[in-house]
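A quick aside before the break. I want you to see a complete sequence-to-structure record at least once, exactly as it would be stored in a machine-readable document. Don't worry about memorizing anything.
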Amino acid sequence: MSDPRIQVELQVDNVATTDERMGWMRSGAFAKNPIGVEFDPDVLGARLDRGDPIEELFLQGSAPRPEGAPR
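That is the input. The structure line, written in tokens, reads:
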């Protein structure tokens, strides 16, 4: 059972270049949600194990947290 007092937050800039990062930061997507999107690491891992293309896994929203799943 997990301990609800222990939490880890990870953030990764998923861009290849500084220009790409700056372009995203100037975009409406960043203004709308500067923190990023939540994802489910189990969903992402299952997709990776299944052999889904890395290019697809890098896309925002590629591993959504199932409705009602604990955070």
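Two observations worth writing down. The helical segments are 18-25, 28-32, 41-50, 54-57. The chain is about 40% helix and 0% strand. We'll return to this after the break.
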